[in-house]
Amino acid sequence: EEHFVESGGGLVESGGSRRLTCTASGFTLEMNVVGWFRQAPGKERETVACIGDVDEKTYYNNLVKGRFSISRDTAENKVYLQMNDLEPEDTAVYSCAAFPVLRGGFRLCILNPAASNLWGQGTQVTVSS
User: Fold this and answer.
1) Distance of CA 125 to the CA centre of its chain
2) CA 12 to chain centre
3) By the 8 A CB rule, do 119 and 6 touch?
């Protein structure tokens, strides 16, 4: 079965750091754009960051730009999200998803994440004030 497994979430103090890992299972990350998304209670899911395949170009939500960094190790089938200077507003369930490059993956990652059928269960990040 093709899916992602997210890990690395937990409780962290405001100003702290956390590194999330997204591991693909049952498929390869080659030829896929991968994104991190988050959903806080009572709010809609939002795109946090996206990373391309070979060129590894990146996109960041303005809310996290300068604090978060997305990276990938395609050979290991993993994508990472390094989160620094965390704020209580970053509290959410963080999930990852994949979008085929040949189907406009980068644009979908940013504008229409619901188009992906490859998601994980998510990992909870809670930032205390």
Assistant:
1) 12
2) 18
3) no
